[in-house]
Amino acid sequence: MDRAKKKFASAIDGLRSLHNRTEINVEEKVQSEHCRFTRVVRHGLPDDPRCCAYDPVQRLIAIGTGRGHIRIIGDAGVDYLLKHESGEPVLHMQFLVNEGGLITSCGTDSIHLWNYRQKTPEIVHTVQLSKESVSCIHLPVAAKWLYIGTDKGNVYFLCLNSFLLSPYVINWNKAIDLSCRVHPGPVRQLAVSPAENTKLLIVYDKGIVVQWNLANKEVDRYPLDPPIKSVNWHFDGRQVLTGNVDGSISLYGNKKASEPIQRTTPHGSGPCRPIQQVEWKHMSENESIIMFSGGMPTDDGLPMPALTILKGGKSATVLEMDWPIIQFIPLNQVIIQIVFLNKNIWNSIPQCPHSVAVLLKHDFMVLDLNQQGHPVIESPHAMNIHESPVTCVSYYSDCPLDLIGALTLVGTKQRNKEFSTRVSWG
To answer: What is the pLDDT of residue 338?
Structure first.
């Protein structure tokens, strides 16, 4: 211990010597052509995060920001930055899984296709919506069409090969019940059945949900009470789980959308806040896991951001967060699809999520789903710069090795001792 203290004192003396260097007055005025600025280091959580996406094959997580930046991170050493030159906020993203492509939807209602396989990533295709604003996008695994929901309640389809819009459009007044004279609001979520790619769930802002058949244009409508905020298919496509405005979750059969099979309120029978997002994943032959944000009781004072994890119907874990939850994504094992006669065979193919990535307003974390209490998996990237306000930054080159060692020693003592035993996100 004394040896470490001596090293630390020696390092501090070396640091002081940097400040004691003689200043030299230069008569010539420094001009802009005398300087060349290059990025030395990028540190901390991306500023103003808005959305995230995940590639389960390449094990990449992308975070889009309000300044038009996209941070793509993976295992240690994998850290890239993409920038929209216009600075428009990135509101929605979808990976082209294992293809080196990323789709971004920005605040100017433009949709871009990035190619990051090459040395210098670039936008290879762009489409601009003129009369409607993009409210959500959806891209099924290995699909060739991007599904686009708009603020007018309509659904469009974009061909990824040509990046042209299809003439096939689902208009809101064709999807909802004719007896409903009120506009359903923007499309908030789109979800294609994992077993039948002709069945599409459409979630509207006012809680209306319909199942649209892309082949014959038939529609099945879900009950309006309670209004639905989020949906998720079971892996076999036979059932649908919904997160509702009153904090309850409902289970529906695929062939009978008019009445739920089961309905429960995980956080009590009293008034609860809306469930903002719900995910339903398959763990093993007889076990599943349900995760949702929101749904907390209203009698607990101010709304507390929380992620609830229900495992196998036997245990419930509520993880309270320091900041509002923007989005969360279960990190699954590599998705395996068997294609036979143009049909996806999903039976007996477990998704087995090992962790869940949670994007917060001022933080980003990955939680271990296989360890008791779901501790945080230590990130190979520095994400905690927002824990305290940054007032100044200094850069020193050619630092003494003793100084680096001393700072490492201090930082080690400040590390969270309750990290997961898992060593990586993938």
So the answer is: 40
- Residue 403 three-state SS: helix
Give the C-alpha separation, 344 to 181, whole Å: 38
Spatial separation of the C-alpha atoms in residues 95 and 227, rounded to whole Å? 30
Task: Label the pairing between strands 110-115 and 228-233.
Answer: unpaired
- Determine the length of the chain: 426
Which tokens belong to 165? 């819009």
Euclidean distance between CA atoms 291 and 311, whole angstroms: 9
Give pTM, 2 decimals. Answer: 0.84
At residue 302's C-alpha, the angle toward residues 299 and 304, to 5°, is 95
Please name which of 75, 67, 73, 114 lies closest in space to residue 91, comparing C-alpha atoms. Answer: 67
* DSSP 8-state class, residue 62: E
In degrees and rounded to multiples of 5, residue 94 shows phi and psi of -145, 130
Tokens of 193: 């059945």
Q: For residue 331, which of 386, 380, 369, 304 has the smallest C-alpha distance?
A: 369
Residues 335, 56: Cα–Cα separation, whole Å? 7
pLDDT for residue 345: 44
Low-confidence residues of the chain, pLDDT below 50? 15, 18, 336-349, 387
